[in-house]
Specification:
By secondary structure, the protein is an alpha+beta fold. It has a single domain, classed as Gcn5-related N-acetyltransferase (GNAT) (Aminopeptidase), CATH 3.40.630. It has five helices and seven strands. The chain has helices at residues 13-20, 26-32, 35-40, 98-113, 129-137, and strands at 3-7, 50-57, 60-69, 81-89, 119-125, 141-149, 152-160. The protein has a seven-stranded mixed beta sheet with strand order 1-2-3-4-5-7-6, with helices on both faces. The protein is globular. The chain starts with a strand and ends with a strand. The relative contact order is 0.15.
Length: 162
């Protein structure tokens, strides 16, 4: 199974439509939204502070995530930081390690596109134990609270790129 991560703007029209058809479990939609909303976020300004990436399997989009920096950072992140948002893997491809693949590629993607970034941050729901375990297994450290949710606070996690 050949996988590749490309920038959103590199998609063909057919691939763009396929991206919008990514299916998530209902509990995942509650946490990250859907592909349509995530892609719409790419219209944020300034465009130089946001990047969308697509995970392709055999040239078909099966995953998506956003990276933000500078003016588009959430209130719980600052400095030379990029934040991860809306990581989603189509439900038909979950359990194959593709989320791990995407998260593992983040340092290289960020260094290649935004070389001034010194750390990555994300917010994860306190009850999302599989995601927290995944991030920790890849070297991310919990470093306090992020945003309030209906069940408490999200946990802020950081990965140094230094």
């Amino acid at each position: 199974m050949k996988s590749t991560v490309i920038r959103h703007e590199q998609l063909s029209p057919l691939q763009h439509q396929q991206l919008l058809e990514i299916e998530l479990l209902s509990e995942q939609k509650t946490l990250v939204g859907d592909a349509y909303g995530a892609v719409h976020t790419l219209t944020a300004r300034p465009a130089c502070d946001i990047q969308g990436y697509v995970l392709l399997i055999e040239d078909v989009p099966v995953g998506f995530f956003l990276l933000k920096r500078r003016s588009l950072l959430p209130r719980w992140a600052d400095g030379p930081t990029a934040t991860l948002h809306a990581l989603m893997i189509d439900r038909r491809y979950q359990g194959l390690g593709l989320g791990r693949t995407c998260v593992g590629m983040l340092p290289g993607l960020v260094r290649g596109f935004w070389p001034d970034i010194e750390q990555l941050m994300l917010a994860v729901d306190l009850g999302n134990l599989p995601a927290r375990a995944l991030y920790q297994s890849l070297g991310w450290q919990e470093c306090g609270d992020a945003d309030r949710t209906r069940t408490g606070f999200e946990r802020r996690m950081v990965l140094s790129l230094g």
